Amino acid sequence: MPTDTPPPPEEVAAFERELERVLSLAAAPARVVAEALEPSPQSSEVRSAVPQVPATFAEETPGDPPKNRAGAGDTRDRLRNELAAAEAILQEQNAQLREQVKIIEEQKVLRNHENRLEWKRVLTEDARRYVVMEFPWITSEAVDDEMLWCFEAALRRNVKLWIAWGLDERGPAGGRPTDPAVASAVAGLQKQFGAHTIRMERRGNTHRKVLLWDSRAVIIGSFNWGSFRGDARRPIRHEVGVRVATAREIRDLEDEYKTIFAVNSLA
Q: Rounded to the nearest 5°, which phi and psi values hold at 163?
């Protein structure tokens, strides 16, 4: 019967150094992990010294007990499995780190007419599943032919559109009705693409300005998407919006809009 021949002490020491390095990274803050993603010289040294895993053992999960093989106490196999398990943890954390970096990079501040440009871009390029829009008022000055064309571009990609609007305060600002031209245009889009593809609900008593899409991002700010064009050629009216891409806040808003529109899914 084959015997388990212990590896040389220097090989075991190299294994243990690499294992200790990977385990320390797995428990380290994201910044430390990001700075140490490149393989170390010790990692290359260890891998060159480790024999390839036999094909009969290729399907074993790292950390599982050995399956019917000679020399079950083989130190090389044990260290190899421990190292692979630790590296799997590190790879998962690396993926999470990259996702967080992406979220941070997508966050930005939009000033004045940049808000309208972003609205158009979301409708014509970014959105793939749904877009939710909420604002106090709707006028044909803002929801003009250009913006209606953007609505149609989204609908042609099978993107669902949801519009919540309406401010119930007293006075001319609160009592402002939907612009008949916009209402007629939306009705035309519903007839062309189906009533379920674009919905406009008077929520009432809302002063919020929100643009939410695809469980991906939301823009919240002072810019009245539905009633202010924000033309860069006109005198500046200072407005600001912030694009946020954190999953918790987006999920919270999605749940709220599902309730407003009485649906199980926005997509």
A: -120, 120
